[in-house]
């Protein structure tokens, strides 16, 4: 198992993993499988996202098979560039429970610190207890609960908004 930065050359692998994880966990992500599959030129758009200088996407590989990924979105506006967001974090079901998610998240935190990001934000479906346990174990705390944040197939899902403070300023 190894972790590396994904580039535009990885777009097809990344998009295929995203589709697989959307199918495995349809309630855990904003987009549905149909919405993802119906995008015009999805691999090309994915390649463009992987070239975006404000986004850093890491991939976890088993041999040459992409089995997990995580994206750090850096903010660029002056008043919020001390913040970053964890996005599109997924590990294929067969590879969960092996420390891959924790390794990816730890590496993103290290990268965020190198960019002098002071706080990392993420959103997670409230019933996703495994993910919440991972985040809390690393130090994320819940800063809010959005009731009925998502609605899929007539079922509502609450989302927890979480934060990890990477630096303390003036004792805060």
From TrEMBL:
Pfam families registered for this protein in UniProt: Acetyltransf_4
Annotated ranges, domain N-acetyltransferase: 1-167
GO molecular function, one term: acyltransferase activity, transferring groups other than amino-acyl groups
InterPro entries membership: Acyl_CoA_acyltransferase, GNAT_dom
Record's keyword terms, sorted: Transferase
Protein name per its UniProtKB record: GNAT family N-acetyltransferase
Organism of origin: Niallia nealsonii
């Amino acid at each position: 198992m190894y972790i590396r930065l994904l580039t535009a050359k990885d777009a097809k692998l990344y998009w295929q993993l995203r589709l697989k994880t959307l199918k495995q966990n349809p309630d855990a992500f904003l987009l549905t499988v149909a919405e993802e599959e119906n995008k015009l030129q999805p691999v090309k758009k994915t390649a463009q996202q992987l070239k975006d200088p404000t986004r850093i996407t890491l991939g976890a590989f088993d041999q040459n098979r992409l089995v997990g990924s995580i994206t750090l979105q850096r903010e660029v506006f002056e008043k919020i560039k001390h913040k970053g967001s964890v996005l599109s974090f997924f590990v294929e079901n067969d590879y969960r429970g092996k420390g891959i998610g924790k390794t990816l998240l730890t590496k993103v935190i290290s990268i965020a610190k190198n960019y002098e990001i002071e706080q990392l934000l993420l959103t997670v479906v409230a019933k996703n207890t495994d993910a919440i346990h991972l985040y809390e174990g690393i130090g994320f705390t819940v800063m809010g609960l959005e009731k009925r944040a998502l609605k899929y197939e007539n079922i509502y899902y609450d989302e927890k908004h979480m934060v990890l403070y990477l630096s303390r300023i003036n004792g805060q």
